[in-house]
Known about the structure:
Blueprint: E1 12-15, E2 24-29, E3 35-39, H1 52-55, E4 71-73, E5 79-81, H2 84-102, E6 107-111, H3 117-131, E7 136-138, H4 145-155, H5 165-169, E8 172-176, H6 180-183, H7 185-198, E9 201-205, E10 218-220, H8 227-240, H9 246-252, E11 253-254, H10 256-266, H11 270-277, H12 281-293, E12 297-301, H13 303-306, H14 311-324, E13 334-337, H15 344-349, H16 365-375, H17 388-396, E14 402-406, H18 410-413, H19 417-424, E15 429-434, E16 448-451, E17 460-463, E18 468-472, H20 485-495, H21 499-502, H22 507-519, H23 538-542, E19 547-548, E20 575-576, E21 595-600, H24 616-619, E22 626-629, H25 631-636, E23 644-649, E24 653-660, E25 668-672, E26 705-712, E27 716-722, E28 733-739, E29 742-749, H26 753-764, E30 769-774, E31 779-786, E32 789-797, H27 805-813, H28 822-827, E33 839-841, E34 846-847, H29 848-856, H30 862-869, H31 879-894
Parallel strand pairs: 6-7, 6-14, 8-9, 8-12, 9-10, 11-20, 12-13, 14-15, 15-16, 21-25, 22-24
Antiparallel strand pairs: 1-2, 2-3, 4-5, 4-16, 17-18, 18-19, 21-26, 22-25, 23-24, 23-26, 27-29, 27-32, 28-29, 30-31, 31-32, 33-34
Amino acid sequence: MRHDAPLAPTATRTTCPYCGVGCGVLATADGKGGAAVAGDPDHPANRGRLCSKGSALGETLAQGHRVLHPLRRNAAGGYDAVGWDQALDGAAEGFKAVIRDHGPEAVAFYLSGQLLTEDYYVANKLAKGFIGTPHVDTNSRLCMASTVAAQRRVFGSDTVPGSYEDLDAADLIVLVGSNTAWCHPVLFRRIQENRAERGAKVVVIDPRVTATAEDADLVLPLKPGMDSVLFAGLLVHLADHGLIARDYIERHVAGLDETLANARDIAGSSAAVAARTGLPEDSVKAFFTLWGQTPAVVTAWSQGVNQSAQGTDKVAAILHCHLATARIGRPGCGPLSLTGQPNAMGGREVGGMANTLAAHMGYTPAEIERVQRFWGAPAMAQREGLKAVAMMEAVADRRIRALWVMATNPAVSLPRADAVRAALSGLDLFVISENVLSNDTLAAKPHLILPAAAWGEKDGTVTNSERRISRQRGFLPLPGGVKPDWWIVCEVAKRLGFSDAFSFRGPHAIHAEHAALSAFENEGTRDFDIGAHAGLSLAAYDALAPVQWPVPWDRPQGTARLFADGGFFTGDGRAQMQALAEPAPASATDARFPLRLNTGRVRDHWHTMTRTGLSPRLSAHVAEPAVSVHPADASRYGLVEAKFARIETREGQAILKVATDTGIPEGSLFAPIHWSAETASDARIGAAVQALVDPFSGQPELKATPASIGPVAFTSQGFVLSRDAFPLPEGSWWARLAVEGGEGRLFATNETIASAMALVRARFGEEGLVELIDREGGGYRCAVVHQGRLLAALFLAPTGRAPLWDTVKAVFADPTAEIGHRFALLAGRAASGTEPGPTICACFGVGLHAIRAAFAAGATSAEEIGLRLKAGTNCGSCLPEIRRIGARAFSTEAA
Ligand SMILES: Nc1nc2c(c(=O)[nH]1)N[C@H]1C(S)=C(S)[C@@H](COP(=O)(O)OP(=O)(O)OC[C@H]3O[C@@H](n4cnc5c(=O)[nH]c(N)nc54)[C@H](O)[C@@H]3O)O[C@H]1N2
Ligand SMILES: Nc1nc2c(c(=O)[nH]1)N[C@H]1C(S)=C(S)[C@@H](COP(=O)(O)OP(=O)(O)OC[C@H]3O[C@@H](n4cnc5c(=O)[nH]c(N)nc54)[C@H](O)[C@@H]3O)O[C@H]1N2
Ligand code: SF4
Ligand SMILES: [Mo]
């Protein structure tokens, strides 16, 4: 829904299920399974804004792809729908058998930052307290683990000290390894507003020049993995220029001298920093001076920092600079970890990770005993469990026999994804709680598929990047036999004999217990204290307003910032600086694999696309999986724009379309993580990613795998549009995408025109079929028209980009479009307007060509484009791209 649409008075206040910004959403069911959504003007995270993904939430609620009833695998390898009792009994019996034969540590849970806090709490409690296995880990291991490890080492607790308000009050914002414009778009808008209104400066540190860097004051495209060199160098600069806050250090921080000596070894001078990071020395000096002279500085980071074999050191190096200058816990300054998933933080709070216990406690004997006493736990885990990558190795070598996966798609998202998928198929008991009927992990054939409530149906809390706990509230009925995740876990727990500990009346009761544990024997010794929620009634829980923890019993209004006056959770109250290891990537490139494969996100897709892949609007920005490569590397390796390339690594391979991009440094490749076997033939990039991990956090280095690239030739390329699935010939490369009115596939093949014609006939017959065959030129176009409506179309051409895709897609989308001139459609003249080109503004559906035309017609700024076309005036996620299109228009004009 558009931002200017009227709000229904019956709207439900809830929270966006995508990124860790945690925007408040007002949702109104439309009575047809969908919903109208708008930003909640009263939510402090977004104050009414939503990005393209949040705005399109209403388009992702269709039930066609949902798993609606429990499914049990049968002897033939198919699935039977079973009742909940059978499914839950089956799960419980399966776990009992594995525990009996192999002990509790043969059982593992793999959870997700997309679970609600209450779901997460009961899953963690069941495994660690009642089954007695420590092997509970989560996709947060791939996401936030390095930040968790560094904050625990340096602060003594996993505490994000600041608030989003600091982004409004800062004079300098440093974005490290974060494509904020695309991945945390609403925060990026806040940063841009601060720039416009207060003149804040922005520095972007990323080997790749992204949309985030486009308006930045200083762009530092450093060599991959060299962030800790830069921040160690900054610490040296601060010391050498008398910028250390001696008083704060003396009272609140330990280890400065050793850390400084270590930093001098790593990054002695700005010249040394420049040499090691590959940055111009002037840029390094400019950065050091700017950071040193600006007291109100926020350093924010995301996966370019965390997903690294030295992610913990990278985070520590950033924390050191803020501690050394006492720029922490005060308005407008501090280190700010931008969390990825909507509830990565909640998962950390309940201790859903292998190396934490519950309520931010760890595995010291006193903490184990305390949690055990609080839970009345019969079989408390006694030591840290296996972290994600190690857990999957244990699945592969059958130390782990039973695995329960909830709300994550590890056969796509874990490194060495092929090996993961193979390992999962060998489990004695494999249970998945899911929303969808089909994904790559389900393709590994779990014994039980448990249908879980999805966003809009489920109820509970999430915590965003600034420690703000918000309610997710249901506004749709549970479809079919679907149940909330917490209910499913508790029912299995009861069948394992733990009724007393798992008979919760609802998520509010779970939240109340979680809150009570956070306050239990706490007395200010642990950061995570939400004791004010301990006695929360159902009514109070339902009315809960967004609040930042800690929320101890005597401070129900919450806490915006921590550590301005020290008070670290280290025992003696002093933060502990850490010496860093020598910065280096986990593995070296060589003659066979000379490039570095970087992986990450695009603006309008979320992870493995199980939701955003359903939205035609979100599928139009980046329609197909492409590898971005510098033009010099493209010519070096024989690659051609819009043709295809095979990426190979020591682990596996993928075939992607080629997109040249001068923002990609030479010597590296960038591939999106979103496409899976569900949505493309050969684009599951996780299969090619190495599984080497950080020694403290266990987080894998997902952005620097040694790789090679070479061209892949197909004789022709095209697209097919159909109301339902259309099979393509074996061996074709394809990417599927949601289009208005049905399904689209962009494809490439070595098949002949004759075989394309045969395929079309086999599927649709001859009736209503019109064709245009260019045997000599190697082109073929056909349309299937029934009762004046376009039912299907297949266009094939020898080279270059799929022809007329946008034009035919527009006709296909319009149910009222009369196909009067069939041959005109085949010739590409049927559409009313010109081809829109790729969608730039997802909110108002404005394409590249219209924006180019408006610049050509005299528009001079993104604001004027907004006035003329509305593009960029809702969520603003596309503003950096509109500016780039404008800049290109002007540079070609000038030339
Ligand atoms: N559109 C969209 N938004 C999302 C998500 C999504 O799927 N789609 N997912 C959410 C989740 S779970 C997460 S974790 C966040 C991730 O948010 P981000 O971390 O912002 O996203 P990524 O694209 O993974 O990576 C960010 C950048 O790290 C850079 N990088 C790679 N190596 C290095 C390095 O050594 N140093 C530095 N400084 N930078 C490096 C990459 O070039 C990339 O541009 O996004 C969240 N938001
Ligand atoms: N190479 C590479 N790999 C990466 C990354 C990278 O940058 N590079 N990023 C990593 C990061 S940061 C992340 S966070 C992961 C994300 O990776 P995943 O967590 O694997 O990706 P999703 O597509 O979000 O998977 C969520 C699954 O849970 C289901 N689901 C959604 N909501 C619910 C619910 O409420 N209940 C249940 N039971 N199921 C639900 C969805 O249908 C979907 O199948 O990928 C990681 N992998
Ligand atoms: S920035 Fe976008 S994806 Fe993230 S929470 Fe807000 S609306 Fe959702
Ligand atoms: Mo993430």
